[in-house]
Amino acid sequence: MNIVPDTSAVVDGRVSERVESGAYEGATITVPEAVVGELEWQANEGHDTGWEGIEELQRLIGLAEDGTITVEYHGARPDAGQKRDADEGEIDAIVRDVAADLDATLLTSDVVQAEVSKAKGLTVEYVEPRGREEGGDEGLEIEQFFDETTMSVHLRAGAKPKAKRGAIGDMHYETIRDGATTEAEMKEFAHDVMETARASPDGFVELDEPGMTIVQYRSYRIAVARPPFADGFEITAVRPIVKTDLDDYEFADDLKQRLLERQRGVLISGAPGAGKSTFAQAVAEFLASHDNAVKTMEKPRDLQVGSDITQYTALGGDMAKTADSLLLVRPDYTIYDEVRKTDDFEVFADMRLAGVGMVGVVHATRAIDALQRLVGRVELGMIPQVVDTVVYIEAGRVDTVYDVTTEVKVPEGLTAEDLARPVIQIADFETGKPAYEIYTFNRQVVTVPLGDDEGSETGVSRLARKEVEREIRSIARGHVEVELKGQNEAVVYVEEDDISYVIGKGGGRISDVEDRLGIDIDVRTLDERPGGSGGSGGSSGSDGSAAGREGTVVTPEVTSRHVVVDAGSAAEVGQTVEVRADGEYLFTATVGRGGEIQVSRGSAIADELERAIDDKRRITVVQA
Predict the structure, then answer these.
(1) Rounded to an integer, what distance in angstroms lies between the CA atom of residue 228 and that of residue 93?
(2) Which portions of the chain have biased composition (kind: Gly residues) (predicted)?
């Protein structure tokens, strides 16, 4: 009897199993060199299947040394192209040719290989892939580490097993076993995860790259990391511990009505572990139960949604292709988990502008941060059309809901009618009270909090003071200090020699500044400062929340058209930051694509920044 096994049968260990059962006693096992080459390639790429297949070949050699069987190798090794195209059947075709040349029985666990071989007239023995026999899906070995309060289990070779346990908002990372996990245990767990995922209809391999495999099995998402991608052998298994209904959340009735009125653009934001995905699942199932066709876009797919909601992943590794496919399917709503990179925001925006209701899950430590991540990625005036609702989740509950609209108006705190511009208004959903405004001011996108605390300088007040200071500094030759008298009036203190120059002939120069900024300005000498201090509007950096933070030191680059500040190490794209010189506030800006802030040369902001650079002052970036 001559048996030719293919890669699937070798990896599954079905050859030695058949020998040990007595079915192949005295047989000649002819292993195609193409199988050896494929296993070697898989092992070099860090795939467990390669190592498992090599171990099976070593078992066969042991059986041959005992005289139970004869092992031979036959044929040529596959070339690099054939190994890369193994998924397209190149290696399987070589194995069939070997079986045909030797008039041997082909042993396989691959149903497609079996059927093609029969069509070619070969003798075929098909064995079910391991674990697919009836009753073979008995769960995962690592489930022993989970109890009803466990959200995730973390295993690493040579370290004690740990887990995150508790309730949402009150999780604790704790050791769950005294003994360290051995390398052998890790291999056993990893093998079990892979085999169970392949065998079970409730599991699939989401990602299989050198050094990293991600598996979805039932409600578990398991990541298996190996060197050299990781510095050690590690397994992380995560599962949701709570499944909720939209009625479990605050503002449930109002949110339901809002979602059902028409297709919406919603960002669900919060810190890691806050319960964003749990809330997204509740929203998905509510929408699906109210006559909406709902799909999801996930990588990996781990939302626990009902069977009537189809979950899509990145098509060919590209969510843009998934979006193109979904636009043909035309869902009423799509849940996008998670929106992180610029490409994700662009896909989200494209689908929303095509008329699809979109619900995106975004990491953010404040509700406003989720919206600011769109700045620089989506045209400013289009943001309310892309996102009209922001839901911030904290400790498993709805903490804040914002309503996002746009209006052409004079920004809050400014007065001149010719300063009217498109303003994005972010209002508290419950009270309707405006909380922030986002607009373009002096060629920069600014996010201004609309506080009513009279005891501290508001965002618009600080912005107005600094803009007045910049404008006057571009005119005056000496020292300048500004004191704001309310949001629409300011007193400017300059050197006595600069008074007439700043005011200009007939007051024309200062009038131009007032018209540009929409603020009434009174020009006085520095000697007239109350107490000689320059008032509360000085540049000492004592303006409150962000001022006391040291920030990240940056080195601006001056080009022919811009002064470029690389803020990538200090903040993410879309975040609002303050740029300072030796701790003194210069301006507020939003980080654009590539993590850069670009200031057009010739502007008051650029002049001030260049002056600071020339003076070798320490330039820092601080998150606002």
Answers:
(1) 33
(2) 531-541
CB neighbour list of residue 407: distance below 8 Å, 6 or more residues apart = 422, 423, 425
Q: Which residues of the chain have pLDDT under 70?
A: 46, 80-88, 130-138, 168-169, 413-418, 442-443, 451-463, 486-487, 531-550, 624
Report the CATH number that the domain containing residue 398 is assigned in CATH: 3.40.50.300
Contacts for 501-510 with beta carbons within 8 Å, 24 or more apart? 501/475, 501/476, 501/477, 502/472, 502/475, 502/476, 509/475
Closest CA to 283 of 308, 252, 262, 310: 252
d(CA 342, CA 362) in angstroms, rounded, equals 12
Q: Are 561 and 520 found together in one domain?
A: no
Q: Are residues 29 and 121 in the same domain?
A: yes
Measured distance CA(324)–CA(301) in Å, rounded: 18
Count of Cβ atoms closer than 10 Å to residue 93 Cβ: 14
For residue 181, list its beta bridge partners. Answer: 157
Number of domains in the chain: 5
Instruction: Categorise residue 209: left if φ over 0, alpha if ψ from -120 to 50, beta otherwise.
Output: beta
**537, 562, 593: which is the final residue of a domain?**
537
Q: Of 211, 238, 265, which one is at a domain's C-terminal end? A: 238
Looking at the structure, do residues 270 and 361 belong to the same domain, yes or no? yes
178-221 confidence digits (pLDDT tens) = 999 999 899 889 888 887 887 777 888 888 888 888 898 888 88
Spell out the residues 6+ positions from residue 250 whose beta carbon is closer than 8 angstroms to its own: 397, 398
Q: What is the pTM of this model?
A: 0.61
Return the closest-CA partner of residue 139 out of 212, 47, 238, 220: 220
Return the residue matching tokens 């405006």: 434
Whether the CB-CB separation of 439 and 375 falls below 8 Å is answered with no
Whether 432 is in a domain gets the answer no
At CA 105, angle to CA 21 and CA 41, rounded to 5?
A: 85
β-bridge pairing 150-156 and 162-167: antiparallel
